[in-house]
Amino acid sequence: MAHSLQIMTWNIQAAIGTTKYSQYVTRAHHQVFNTSAKRSTLEKIAEIVSTHDVVCLQEVDLGGRRSGFTCQAEQIATLSGHTHVAVQRNRTIPGISLHGNAILSRYALSDIHDFKLPGRVKGRGCLIANVQVGQGISVANLHLSLGRNDQALQLEAVASHLPRKTPFLVVGDFNCTNSSTHLEAFAEANKARIANHPLLPTYPSWRPQKDLDHIVHSDSISIDQRHCLAHQLSDHLPVSAEISF
Fold this sequence. Notes:
Layout: E1 4-11, H1 23-26, H2 36-49, E2 54-61, H3 72-80, E3 84-93, E4 97-105, E5 109-116, E6 125-131, E7 137-143, H4 148-159, E8 168-173, H5 181-189, E9 192-194, E10 213-218, E11 222-228, E12 239-244
Parallel strand pairs: 1-2, 7-8
Antiparallel strand pairs: 1-12, 2-4, 3-4, 5-6, 6-7, 8-10, 9-10, 11-12
Helix pairs in contact: 2-3
């Protein structure tokens, strides 16, 4: 029996809501302090993700001062109706922020695995969980570093944690285009495919030029629909897809 899921990956930039380059400077204080605008942004994010079964978020604040000492993943899940949440803390800036990834799901999550990725600068990670639909599907949510060499090392680390007997997805902010040789090598080595038709530029959200957010899937999974949603609530656009397996 075939199963289908609506999935989404989104770098939400901790609800800072950058919508033009100049705001990286003018809204720099939002990296340190909580604001009422962030609550409104989180509510809008929750409304958008509420139509999806599985949501993978990057750049979530898990309870730092800049998020009002509350976990943004839990806030979104409460508003969106996702009853299962897995979070991963990757970098802590004392007294300011708790950077991480999160998976929100309408289905139970099992075999949750949080592992840190190698790199010259620490603070990147991958969160893997098995979504309990049918025989189960493994979902890996990652946020890679900026440098090509680090990305190649990090993808090797991710590959070592992927299941070999169940369908899998690897999604998130890869910080590289889908034509990057190391991403192509990762997909080939793991008998997976990069969802790349059509090309979906996701960054910057106000004038998308680079496809940095991807869905890589095992051969047993079909991507039935895939598109960007034009919501400028972060510096990245969300990628939505319907999959079947």
